[in-house]
UniProtKB/TrEMBL annotation:
Protein name: GAF domain-containing protein
Organism listed in the record: Streptomonospora wellingtoniae
Domain of life: Bacteria
Low complexity bias locations: 13-30
Domain GAF: 110-263
Lineage: Bacteria, Bacillati, Actinomycetota, Actinomycetes, Streptosporangiales
């Protein structure tokens, strides 16, 4: 577009043949005709050199001194008029450019965009090699200005300059709030030269520099520069032009800062609004949780309902761990440590398994509430903590009710075992209220755990009876359970497993059943207790046995008989001989009886020669008497051998020996 304008201007300035003819005619006419020539030259904006042409023609035509003086005066006036018109056109162009700049800056909202537009427009308006802008560093109080944006710059060092007050041309402008211009920066001594600034200017190759202040409300906020890489004197008009641009720039920067501040304030307000909204929602959730938990407590709701209510309010999955529900999980190291931390702080704690809040009543730990699957803010943590308090209240209430019910179950069990014939219908009704059907098949389990905490063992037994529809109580230092089921061994193993997990020590039990009617429970109790005493006599703690597991051995061992003494009285010579000589007389005698008195089959089991078996049996006869193989004596010896096996190897080995003897 500039090329087209230049072409049009050149065409306007080039005289046509008609114009040349008119100018020649005016020159020939002389006087006023010559003055018309200058008006025509002004009209077509002819170059200054053409204003000499009328004088040259007049001199060539032999014009007089007066005529030549008039032409000289007319030429000078015409050139002055031409200069005024040119200045006005330039000023009009500059004002138009400033107006466009102000219009462009007014539409910009981003500060960096505004600064970039300012330096680009300054460089274009003044036609300089570079333009750049520095701003006050608000982070410090010493008044330094730092390079913010450049146009046409090629030096990284120059683009990172910092100017202190009075340092360099820019520092002087910032300090005095006055414009400064230099045609040659390095030879100008009006301002303080520093090594850093001079090195940056030299690296950029700048020579002529013009700087004007950016002022806002009487305070300098920065400096706008235009610079060339060769000597160039900047005119007053150029200084004024850059100053006007700086004024517009200051307004635009202030507007951008205000917009930025407004944007930041709006963002802050939005953030506050979001926080208020979140807080309001948290308050609503807390009120909802409070209403739900209060309603549950007033309606007599249980722990499971509280779990569901808290899960609905907070999301995620809520689980309550206590001595009766997930007791083994509550004892796990990670959960136990988290529950301890929650008890100490009185707050919910975050762990790898989720959020944990301890349920405590009167300083007594009752359990823990675990929330998994979601994260919680402070308000939601308070909800979980309140839920833990409600859980603790429910657990205390449940424990009180359970203790009362357990007393009722214990009293009912005593009545069933001691005097079922007195009022069987009343016993059945009492059992029905506790959820037990005494006419159905039940197994009686008698257990003991010498190393266990009595309270935990009793609580575990009561919980087992309550959840399975049975009865529980304590008799003669043992724990007695009446549990539904047709198979004594299976019911006994399940009961021992549950009790062992609760007390964390070995539990030994005898089981008998199923009971057939109320009168049969006392008989089953005696059988189960006899099985328990048999296991204890054999030293087999931690095992479970029913009468069918022990056979006739249960009858023999069921009382307070001295089993070890009987074995020693029969087999002591052989046992002593084996201990001293490291022989196998007892083993040989057992194999002999196990194979029906056949030495050939006994030697196969013992992996020895038949003569060795004969020699060992001969030694047996010399130690315990030659009548050892007679029927009466042989029965006594076989019984002693089986009891010895029980004492040494347990019930399973005794059963195996019993089957082999058969």
């Amino acid at each position: 577009m500039e090329r087209e304008l230049s072409e049009h201007t050149a065409q306007d300035q080039a005289p046509t043949r008609a114009q040349a003819a008119q100018e020649q005619a005016a020159a020939d006419a002389g006087g006023k005709g010559a003055q018309v020539q200058f008006l025509r030259l002004l009209l077509r904006d002819a170059p200054a050199v053409e204003y000499e042409r009328p004088l040259v023609r007049a001199r060539a035509a032999g014009g007089g001194a007066e005529e030549l003086a008039d032409l000289e005066e007319a030429k000078v006036l015409a050139l002055r008029v031409r200069t005024v018109l040119s200045d006005r056109r330039r000023r009009e162009s500059e004002l138009s450019a400033l107006f466009e700049t102000a219009n462009d800056l007014a539409g910009m909202r981003d500060l960096d965009q505004v600064l970039r537009a300012i330096v680009d427009r300054a460089r274009n308006l003044l036609g300089t090699d570079t333009a750049y802008l520095t701003l006050r560093d608000t982070a410090v109080e010493d008044g330094d200005t730092v390079m913010r944006v450049t146009s046409g710059s090629v030096s990284a060092r120059f683009q990172q300059l910092r100017l202190g007050p009075g340092e360099g041309l820019g520092g002087l402008v910032a300090e005095t709030a006055l414009p400064y211009v230099t045609a040659n920066y390095f030879t100008d001594s009006r301002f303080e030269h520093t090594d850093t600034i001079d090195a940056g200017v030299l690296d950029e190759g700048l020579v002529a520099i013009l700087g004007v202040p950016l002022q806002l409300n009487g305070r300098v906020i920065g400096v706008l520069f235009a610079a060339n890489r060769r000597e160039r004197p900047f005119s007053h008009a150029e200084v004024a032009l850059l100053g006007s641009l700086a004024t517009h720039a200051s307004i635009a920067i202030d507007s951008a800062n205000l917009l930025e501040g407004t944007r930041a304030a709006l963002e802050e307000l939005n953030e506050v609004n979001h926080r208020l909204t979140d807080h309001s929602r948290a308050v609503e959730r807390a009120a909802d949780a409070h209403d739900r938990l209060t309603d549950l407590v007033l309606r007599g709701g249980g722990v499971e309902e509280v779990e569901a209510a808290v899960s609905a309010v907070l999301g995620g999955a809520v689980t309550v761990y206590d001595a009766s529900r997930h007791a083994e999980r509550l004892a796990a190291p990670e959960l136990a440590q988290a529950a301890g931390a929650s008890r100490s702080s009185g707050r919910a704690v975050r762990t790898g398994i989720g959020w944990v809040a301890a349920a405590v009543a009167g300083g007594e730990p009752l359990g823990a509430v675990v929330l998994e699957g979601v994260d919680l803010d402070a308000a939601d943590q308070r909800i979980l903590e309140r839920a833990a308090m409600v859980i603790a209240l429910l657990l205390v209430m449940r424990r009180s009710a359970s203790e009362a019910e357990n007393r009722v179950r214990g009293d009912l069990l005593d009545a069933v075992l001691d005097a079922p014939e007195r009022d069987p219908d009343t016993l059945r009704r009492r059992a029905e209220r506790l959820g037990a059907d005494l006419d159905a098949e039940h197994v009686v389990v008698v257990a003991e755990a010498p190393g266990a905490h009595p309270g935990r063992l009793r609580s575990a037994a009561m919980h087992l009876a309550e959840t399975s529809g049975g009865l529980a109580g304590a008799r003669s230092g043992t724990t007695v359970l009446v549990l539904p089921g047709p198979r004594p061994a299976e019911v006994g193993r399940k009961a021992v497993s549950a009790l062992t997990a609760a007390v964390n020590t070995a539990v030994t039990a005898g089981a008998s059943g199923p009971a057939s009617g109320l009168a049969d429970y006392a008989v089953r109790f005696l059988e189960a207790r006899r099985c328990l005493r048999t296991l204890v006599a054999l030293g087999r703690s931690g095992e479970v046995a029913a009468p069918e597991d022990l056979g006739f051995l249960g009858v023999l061992l069921g009382g307070d008989r001295d089993v070890a003494g009987f074995v020693d009285s029969v087999l002591e010579p052989l046992l002593d001989y084996d201990r001293r000589r490291e022989t196998s007389l007892v083993e040989t005698l057992r194999a002999y009886f196990a194979h029906g008195g056949s030495m050939s089959r006994a030697k196969d089991e013992l992996h020895v020669h038949v003569n060795t078996v004969a020699q060992r049996l001969e030694r047996v006869g010399r130690l315990i008497g030659p009548d050892w193989h007679e029927p009466g004596r042989a029965l006594e010896i076989q019984l002693a051998l089986r009891l010895h096996a029980l004492l040494q190897g347990g019930v399973a080995e005794a059963e195996e020996a019993e089957r082999g003897g058969a």
